[in-house]
Amino acid sequence: MIKTPHVDWLALSPELALLGASAVLLMVAVFVPKQLRSSAAAFTGFAGFVTAFVFAVVLGAKTPHLTTLIHDSMYRDRWSALGQVLVAGCGAVAVLISFRERWGEEHVGEYYALLAAAGAGMCFFLQAANLMTLFLGLEWFSISLYVLTAIDIDLIGSLEAGLKYLIVGAVGSATLLFGSALVYGRTGQLSFDKIAAAGYSHDAMLVLGLAMVIAGLMFKSSAAPFHMWTPDAYQGAPTPVTSFMSSATKVAALMVTYRVLTVAFPGETHLWRWAIAIIACISLAWGNIGALVQRNVKRILAYSSISHAGFMLIGIAAASHLGAKALAYYLIPYAAMSLGSFAVVAVRERELGMPVTLENLSGFGWERPFFGVGMWVFMLGFLGFPLTGGFIGKFYVFSAAYDSGFWWLIVVGVIATMISAYYYLGIVRAMYFRESSELQLAPAGGAPPREALVGIAVVVCLVVTVGSFFAVQPLIDVANAAANALPL
Amino acid sequence: MNEWLTTLLIVIPAAGALLVALLPLSGYWAGSLAALTSLVEIGFWITAAGKFDFSSPSLQLSQDHPWFRDLNVSYHVGMYGFSVWLVGMTVIVMAACVIYGWWVGRTRPRAYFALMLMLTAAIVGVFTAQDLLLFYAFFEAMLIPLYVLIGVWGGPGRMRATLTFVVYTVVGSLLMLAAIVAYGLHYGTFDLTQIPQSDNTWLFLGFVVAFAIKSPLFPLHGWLPSAYRESPPEVSAVLSGVVSKAGLYGLLRIAIAKFPTVAHDWRYELLVLASISLVYGSLLAFRAPDFRGVVMYSSLAQSGLIVLGLFAFNSLGVDGAVLQMVNHGLISASLFLLAGMVERRTSTGELRLLGGMARGRPMLATVLMTTGIIALAVPLSSSFAGEFLILAGVFQQHWIWGVIGAGAIVLAAMYMLRLISAVLHQDVGSAVPESALDLRLGELAVVVPLVACLLALSAYPNLVSGHSFPADSTIQVTAK
Description:
The structure holds 2 protein chains of 2 kinds.
Chain A: H1 9-31, H2 34-61, E1 67-69, E2 74-76, H3 78-98, H4 108-126, H5 131-149, H6 158-187, H7 192-198, H8 204-221, H9 230-236, H10 239-264, H11 269-292, H12 297-318, H13 321-352, H14 364-367, H15 369-383, H16 389-403, H17 407-432, H18 452-470, H19 472-483
Helix pairs in contact in A: 1-2, 1-4, 2-3, 2-4, 3-4, 3-10, 3-13, 3-18, 3-19, 4-5, 4-10, 5-6, 6-8, 6-9, 8-10, 9-10, 9-12, 10-12, 10-13, 11-12, 11-17, 12-13, 12-16, 12-17, 13-15, 13-16, 13-18, 13-19, 15-17, 15-18, 16-17, 16-18
Chain B: H1 2-22, H2 27-51, E1 60-68, E2 73-79, H3 81-104, H4 109-128, H5 132-141, H6 143-153, H7 158-187, H8 201-214, H9 224-230, H10 233-258, H11 260-265, H12 267-287, H13 291-310, H14 315-346, H15 362-375, H16 382-395, H17 399-424, H18 441-459, H19 462-465
Antiparallel strand pairs in B: 1-2
């Protein structure tokens, strides 16, 4: 009789739920009649993400200590569980945003299938415990995202964006792979903890491998100077896809970066924390300065996501328990603000039938008060103003930097925030201070499209953004439990 | 109940703001709900002041809940003697401004009144927060409604005005955030009542720059002209009457009380800047071509005077500074509202187009005259008491500061009399229509209570100056 290996199904449940949803969706794409297909596909996708969300919460609750599974190739711990909760939550909200997008009806099943597959890939990536699973997870969700970016071939720029993302992303993946090969070549180990145990610190080849691994991961986090795909991909992709990319991808990439660096390369901490600190500074500078000159709102938000990668990297550069906690906390309001702001952009885009720029946001705040207030709150959140979790996130990140002696990162972060006030408040200015009559636009005609589901998505994002300001203690407890899984 | 009073003072306007924003009310009813909220707020302040023991030096009516424990940040609010008066000034001025906005009939009323009430909550929060991060949160929260209030309801140059205003304030407040992070983490708590005093110059400067921008103090007053001119008059009234006091309060509560030695070492620099603000502001006010220009530059001058009092480092100066903060809050709010009323009748504030408005308009003449005369610190007025205390206090530092301050009082008389004469007397200005009405009942209902408060304080200034800092104050502001 063949002995079946023990499989920890619960630990794999988020991935499996999403993969299952993806498979069902492919069936939906074929078997469900055309007029029902859009609703059935959206429902299945939503159900998949919600199931994964619930499983990830249960997984987090039932995993007090870190364990490994499948020959030490994956982790089961609260750090990855928190990441999976966030990714699944982002996916569910992204489905709500996607529902009314003008897809070619025949591809709608595939769209949700790919979204679920990308989510599954991110959940897998978050649990990666060795260089092999790391690369596998990265490619898994990246390939799904490449296709998603280019999925709406009627959308001007979508195909171009997909191609740019594919090429630059492939360079990133290749860099990561090459770096992994160097690390493996030097240490003879794939598992993160065994790489650390091999004790090759200060070895030139290992350091080069580490540098390339960092570079590969930074491509996915869209940190400057590895960000060049970000503005184009964010602008060109269908807005719901952008909302998912900007939130979930960042969660996965940054959380995994923290894990890889602390578990596999503790001997090089003094090196990588400087590298990360410098990348953070470049991201803060480039993201904020780049955003100043943009007129297209999606591009502004893309640059803003680069600068926020910089803020969150400050938490990684701190290389401390407080830093890990800061990152884990920061990601919660950040993901909500990111999704929410792109949701509002999607609403305006559908209303106008053209890309949203600062000019054609005029009067939006008064015409659609709810979405206007939503956008206002998200912008204040990005800016780090009180009454939003963005404020507490920045405060934690700065605290972590100060605590580990990188006080100058606070100075950089403060200057970056000052610059960012211009364009975040510029969006508020565009929405409220100008009348819509100043807008030289041919009206699309008819009543504005019904947006009940996007409305729900924005409500959820608002609740998380504002709620994370008031309920800091419970969220910090969660972040603390997650950070305990890292060897800091 | 008592420990809830301070929280209620913050929550009532915030809840009112939410109600006004969410309920589908017409402009009239939105305005009346807002006015009612701000009157209820005054009622609660009177209750709080009644329950307050002014002889006790400790924090009162306070409430303390942990916000997040790992960094020891808490929701800690409460009041000292001087904060009671600043909160009182705030709620009275805000009520007047809300009611004025209602009377004028601002467009988009629900958004407008919700923002005004939100601003009230934030300012009361600033004066009562006893945790550094909470203080910062309220301090920043003031900017959110102000930005929109100026940007949406402001004059033609509002875009530029909001931009300069935001650039200045954000720069200042982020420097303060950096200082707060370093200060709080270094001592392991953010609670203002527990955190030890520090002698770090950089932290002190981080706080001082933020507060000097808000106050404003020369040379950080660059945002002032455009913001005060482009705002609706009642928002200018709030800006110069109340919001600027948040900066001065911060200087007192944090920069001086928590960094006494550094503040003492830096007193000459600050006294010089305060003197320049005082003299330069007065001269600009004397030269200003319009009603609001006079009032706004006189605000700059008054900030300078109050800072002179604060950095006198003795109880005379600080008592005078607090009294003068309350005085100036009421005076400049009244004057900006009067400027708005004049502008409504003449559609301009330019002094050369105004004049002769006293004839046939006894109410306007009386109110403007009374306010102006109190503003120029005529003896027996409350601002005379405040300025006298400040000068007596700062005289003990060095006689030169006393001379500068006294000279500036002469300048104050010059610019105020010029203003009064240019608006009320002289020949009838070309922009003043014969049919321009006297102050209406609604306008009187807004300004007369403010002036009445000033007259009451003139009769008994000790109400504020004698009930701010008990002898053994826990806030150490006097030199060692």
